[in-house]
């Protein structure tokens, strides 16, 4: 289960973010980026954040820690912004909190280089959960303390919006042509060899157990939250085994440029205009 904290103060909305995520302080004195249960995208966004965020972590990718945040809408009463007030009012109960990476900056492939190994791991993971939300237009990657962090998995696993089609999802291809890390020659084969064996029935059972019941109950076609959990696991397990064969990479993806290692591009003359 996710650790549960209680929201004590709505601090500020985040400048970006279609779902109007906000910064919230909790009773453990932590600051969290909160994704609201009452946001237009609905609770499946929160389920996707938990399943993908927990899975990515277990595969060794960097994702901010997740908690569930109990919210009493009363903390929104003093909010001057009506849209925020409405969001808080409709989000009483459990919401999703993500550790706030203070000082993190949005990822820019022109300023920060990744190895083909790391690019391969991120692309393979995104293919597994069918995350179409990591393009150069909207990278949903942060750089924090000099390292790459993955955020925003709310739009992944599109099959959970139409469960009867989920059994065919295992074989569905993933177009990585638009992926923000495509220019770094992602080594998909190495990522698949390392990561696919880690995606076991046991691991998926553990991860899906972290999703609060309240976000799973009442799902049409399922008689219990556990049945929905099994559906997530049952879709990801076969997909993990074969997805590397179905990743379509951009034909124009440039080969990984020679570099000393991952990180900020400083004085690297192989990249035109690349000064960090
Ligand atoms: N854990 C975090 N630490 C620091 N900043 C964050 C964190 N999570 C999100 N942000 C910031 O908030 C912005 C919006 O977050 P996020 O992308 O998760 O929201 P969203 O509503 O799903 O966005 P969209 O749908 O527009 O991509 C991010 O682009 C980033 O700048
Ligand atoms: Mg985003």
UniProtKB/TrEMBL annotation:
Residues 267-276 have a biased composition (Polar residues). Residues 251-263 have a biased composition (Low complexity). InterPro entries: HipA_2. Residues 251-276 are annotated as: Disordered. It holds the Pfam family HipA_2. Residues 14-158 form the HipA-like kinase domain. It comes from the Bacteria. This is HipA-like kinase domain-containing protein. It comes from Streptomyces tsukubensis.
């Amino acid at each position: 289960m996710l650790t549960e904290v209680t929201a004590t103060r709505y601090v500020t909305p985040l400048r970006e973010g279609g779902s109007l995520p906000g910064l919230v302080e909790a009773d453990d004195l932590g600051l969290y980026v909160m994704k609201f249960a009452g946001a237009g995208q609905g609770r499946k966004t929160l389920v996707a954040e938990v399943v993908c965020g927990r899975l990515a972590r277990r595969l060794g990718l960097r994702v901010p820690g997740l908690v569930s945040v109990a919210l009493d809408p009363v903390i929104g009463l003093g909010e001057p912004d009506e849209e925020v007030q409405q969001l808080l009012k409709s989000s009483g109960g459990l919401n999703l909190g993500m550790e706030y990476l203070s000082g993190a900056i949005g990822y820019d492939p022109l300023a920060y280089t990744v190895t083909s190994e790391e690019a391969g791991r991120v692309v393979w993971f995104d293919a597994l959960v069918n995350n179409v939300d990591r393009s150069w237009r909207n990278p949903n990657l942060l750089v924090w303390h000099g390292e790459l962090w993955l955020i925003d998995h709310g739009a992944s696993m599109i099959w959970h919006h139409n469960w009867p089609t989920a059994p065919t999802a295992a074989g569905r291809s993933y177009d990585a042509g638009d992926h923000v890390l495509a220019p770094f020659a992602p080594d998909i084969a190495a990522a698949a060899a390392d990561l696919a064996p880690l995606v076991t029935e046991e691991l998926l059972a553990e991860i899906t157990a972290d999703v609060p019941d309240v976000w799973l109950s009442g799902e049409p076609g399922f008689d219990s939250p556990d049945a929905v959990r099994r559906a997530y696991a049952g879709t990801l397990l076969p997909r993990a085994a074969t997805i590397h064969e179905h990743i379509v990479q951009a034909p124009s993806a440039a080969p990984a440029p020679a570099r000393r290692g991952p990180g900020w591009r400083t004085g690297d003359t192989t990249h035109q205009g690349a000064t960090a």
